[in-house]
Amino acid sequence: MSKNYASSTWCLNELVLILEQHRKFNQIVIPIFYHVEPTVVRNLTGSFKVGMDKHRKKMLETEFIEDIVTDIYRQLGVLLRSILSQDPHLIGIDYSINFLSSWLQDGSEHTADILTILGMGGIGKTSLAKHVYKLHFREFNRSSFVENISRRCVEQSNGFLHVQKQLCDDISKASLNPVHDLSVYTSTIENTLARKKVFIVLDDIDNLDQLDVLLGNKGFHPGSKIIITTKDATLTERCALFNPQVQPKHTKHNLKSLYVTDSLKLLCLHAFKCEDLKEGYEAVSYDIVNYCQGHPLALKVLGRSLHNRVVAYWEDCIKGLKKEPCSYINNVLKMSFKSLPSKNDKELFKHIACFFVGKDRDLTKTILKACNINTRSGITHLTDRCLLHIDWNNMLSMHSLIQEMGRDAVCQESPEKPWKRSRLWCHEESFKVLKHKKARGVILGKGNILGLSLDMRMLEKEKLRGSSELKTASFSNMDCLMILHLDYVQINGPYENFPEELIWLRMCGFPLKSIPSELPMENLVALDMSYGNIESFDVSCSNPQPLEDDRLLGSLKILDLSYCYKLNCIAGFCELPTLESLFLRNCTNLIEVSESIDHCDELVFIDLSYCKELRMLPRMLAKLKKVKKLVLDGCNIGELAMEVVQEIRNGNPIVSMPKCVRSLPRLKWLSLGRCDMWVSIEHPPRTLKDFTLQASKSVLDGPKSLIQKIAFDPEMSPLRLWLPLNDLAGSSIDIEGMIKIQPIAGVDDTILCSLGWRNLEFINKRRVGTYHYKRGPEGSQTQMYYEFGIFSTIYGGKLMPTWIRRRSKEPSISFTIPSSPKRLTGLNFCYVHTLYFPYWRSKIQDGNSEYPYHQLLFLPYIRISNITKNLTWIYKHYIDMVNVGGKSLTFLSHWMFGDNEMEAGDQLTIFIRQELEDNDYRYNIRECGVRLVYDNDDGINEKEEDPLSYYKSWNHIIGGDLSPFHLTTQEYNLQNKFFPWYTTLELGPNQPHPFIARSVLYKGHERLFKAFSQKNSNTRGRAIELLIGHKMYQNRSNYNLAMEGLINYTSSFQGVAAAFISFWLALENL
Asked: Where does this protein have coiled-coil stretches (predicted)?
């Protein structure tokens, strides 16, 4: 320090930096005094006093006041956010709040960000956006929340001008004089947006013009944040703001329905003014939750209407909702329907709502294309507007309230006269229209009805009032009828007057032995005669009862004769040139499939499962070049051409992949059941997407299966492999490119060190067991699992490794990656999971022994989001269920991230969420933590070979090719479906049963079918009791009937539970 040191601003700033380094990093500071006494500096006298006085005069008090105000404002904001975050009415959206908050707090000042909140009407988009806005708007100098834009534009005079003025006033911080020209407001808004950093929420946008008028096309000032709520997934990206070369960063956030637990809490909050169920209201509460299917608005509206009402009133309300939906909820949902861009899309929506929910998308497209409906763009428009969802197995699904709204739209075509509607799906109304002469007289020559569905099992006999038989004349002159479902209907009379324009004819339980020759089928695209009495099917002239016209089935693409137990042969394929799908499942007396099948050049799917009398497949099968799916479960094939199958033994004991199967050029789906002698699975076709291998009952009861090797070609795309992995020989398995499992005690130390896993000896003493049907819980060595570039292990207890230091007591953690001179190579994430069952106890019986109570835990999924890079990975472990002896388990994982996935300065959010939950199954994330792993953290020399090189060589891992697991923009669902897990629970006869299972499509007994469809809690409880008691599975026919009905109730969690349990119990008796 010299005499003039205090006069130099640069010197003083340097001194501040030196002292900060000393405070933060404990660096040594040695002062050197040059021609100045230390007392002069200490007491600020002489030249130091003069220099400091000059600085004081230059400084303004307003700058200090501004800093003080800013600090107080920040601290008050933290307190306010803490208060707002405890809003009791916000249930089930914790992850969404955390995700949006992290997105808003991302420190990027170089670009503007747009986030679109997507979801069906009433799902909570506005509530979420409003809550997040209240939490964070104080962090921006200019902000605006514009609510209900679409409704205001429609309902208010000059509504668009009022919306523009509100936005303009908010972001300009001034009240402008009203004008009557949209372009004036648009110009002012876009100029402000280009110059100022803003935070804007535009709620309920439903068309492109609204965005272009409200935001203009000049872009945003860097650092601005825009949130848009909409029901249209493609809307934001089509607006003018995305036309310039420098586009804003765009993130999409899909808002889903609430889980059962959260649904119950929300219902109780509005019905009982607390989050707990009221005694005596359990069953009716579950019925309301089942009806609402996790829809927040419906839960709120119905909850408020049922406040202070007796149980009988609740029951009447439920009955009334089945007949007529709540108008308020229906009107909210109908806004999405009205916004569909074309008549084609609206007609498609009605068709799906009435007839195609739960049907395969490809089947739906094939049928409706023949009905002159454009499904290619139409299905896309419906999914974009959250009106339709495509399940992982390609099935069309629709929220029950959305489906109800679509069917109500059809009802409104003629509320009092169903015969004047375009579609009839209500079985009682269909029967009345076909039975009553007055209605038929009105229909005659009118041709209003496009589709009709009638299932006689759904009608109560006491309400039929006479004979249940119908006359074929009932269908005369239905000129426009294209879709006709007549299940288990007795029809008398000639079929020559049946509608000629039929595209899809389904007659399950058809009573005749053959298809009537006079039945007009020139335009048929899909024919379903399953569960019928047909003995032979041959459309060629060689058939004893041939169809008269060679062209009758020339357009047929889908033929389903499944469960026709009397069918013994099928031939005449030369007359089916356009056939694409052939279903012959469970035709237990089928002994021959004609060699003429080689004429079906378009054939894609063949299902011959459980055709037990079929001893030989046609030799010409290998000539079919377009086959993608082949199902041979439960067959007893004993003689095949060598070019069809290479290795086969009596009783179908296949030991390896047949060469003919490996040579099929387009095969995508292969299922082989009850093949207990498999020793290897090597090099299936590269096109394969799904492969199922089922063990028989004897294998489940007996020793482990013989599978020793599973290998796929490296170039293969990922596939779903359904295997009984618990039965695999040994305790280790390596399914190349998919998953590797081995005891962690046998893993090389260099690998564990590369993962940053140290001092893990204690976990081998904390084993958990996988859970196996029939044998009950099994202990096992602590395993290490590897898939998708993620290593993981699971062990009992609540002890996290000590080197996990960044921790959170919540089921989520957010942080910014700090800078480091080392290269980031991965991330270790760990959580502790506690659980308890307040009502249920699980008991598994095996022979004469009985297993004690065990806790069965469904593992949650982990969602890691890089907010800065707009990347998200959702990981669901391949193990669904774990048997826990205590009350806690710990999950430890290592994610192999690289520079392309995350780097210093990136904002990360990690969230844990239970996929399956209910009111009786309680869980809690006690703690979670994260630790970043850097290069050379393991102390390994850089010149040494990378211990993880084998794992990094896999194709479908983080940093590799994850395109097959792509969900939306930059979002990946990392989940392998290997095999189902099985469990049994003790269920009381009159209790609600909120146990949930996944991927259930099963059927049920006629009596139970009605019980489930009527959704009567007492009858339903008895139905479940019968299912578990095996009283309905004494023979195959009862089983088939049983499995058919439950599919109609699986939309509810109780129905899924019953179907899940009944299915696996039924398997024992097959």
From this structure: none
